[in-house]
């Protein structure tokens, strides 16, 4: 992220390759390929804005982790009621595992917090689309899944799997759920495939 802030948007572990490095060894290369780049891009952008400091790198993860609590509330309110939503948000806010990510005491916190955020935001958007019948929300859901794929790859497809399960087996069942799931998936891959 520091190299992104100071030099380019290419996620480089080493800006100048070490002598004798093997370009075929993805773990020892100067381009960082361990995770997709969104977490590093966000951390690098904050470092560019606020200086190269640990807190500026962790700022996007903290913001996403905090907003995820609100998304938990909104999702639970759509599926249940306000009392259940408040309880779900409280459990989310007090979850020891999620607090470790949000406090920045666990490695890859930017990656995981952005993944959690984009998956939850995607779930909220397709639930809203199912209730409001607004097709643009399906496209938004796909874009959010695409951003999740840029955060931590394939775990972001979890929300797409939930959509298919909910559309087939739950109260939101409708005949065109396969077309809607195709719109979501196509939107996701339009965001992810250029990388």
Structural class designation:
mainly alpha
What is the percentage of strand-forming residues?
under 5%
Query: What overall form do the CA principal axes indicate?
Result: globular
How many individual helices?
9
Descriptive overview:
The chain is globular, with a radius of gyration of 19 Å. The two termini are about 15 Å apart. It has helices spanning about 1-5, 40-50, 55-80, 80-95, 95-105, 110-130, 135-150, 160-170, 175-190. With about 200 residues, the protein is an all-alpha fold. It is built from 9 helices and no strands.
Structure described in brief:
By secondary structure, the chain is mainly α. It contains 9 helices and no strands.
Q: What does the secondary structure layout of this molecule look like, with pairings?
A:
Elements: H1 2-6, H2 38-50, H3 54-79, H4 82-94, H5 96-103, H6 109-132, H7 135-152, H8 158-169, H9 177-192
Helix pairs in contact: 2-3, 2-6, 3-4, 3-5, 3-6, 5-6, 6-7, 6-8, 7-9, 8-9
List keywords for this structure.
195 residues, mainly alpha, 9 helices, 69% helix, 0% strand
């Amino acid at each position: 992220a520091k190299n992104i802030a100071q030099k380019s948007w290419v996620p480089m572990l080493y800006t100048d390759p070490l002598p004798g490095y093997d370009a075929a060894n993805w773990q020892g290369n100067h381009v960082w390929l361990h995770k997709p780049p969104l977490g590093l891009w966000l951390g690098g952008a904050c470092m560019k804005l606020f200086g190269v400091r640990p807190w500026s790198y962790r700022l996007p993860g903290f913001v996403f982790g905090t907003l995820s609590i609100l998304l938990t509330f909104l999702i639970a309110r759509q599926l249940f009621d306000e009392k259940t939503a408040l309880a779900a948000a409280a459990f989310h806010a007090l979850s020891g595992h999620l607090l470790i990510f949000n406090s920045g005491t666990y490695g890859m916190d930017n990656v995981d917090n952005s993944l959690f955020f984009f998956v939850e935001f995607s779930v909220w958007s397709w639930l809203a689309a199912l209730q409001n019948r607004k097709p643009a929300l399906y496209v938004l859901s796909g874009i959010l899944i695409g951003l999740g794929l840029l955060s931590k790859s394939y775990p972001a497809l979890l929300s797409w799997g939930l959509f298919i399960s909910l559309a087939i087996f739950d109260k939101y069942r409708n005949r065109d759920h396969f077309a809607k799931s195709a719109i979501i998936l196509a939107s996701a891959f339009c965001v992810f495939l250029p990388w």
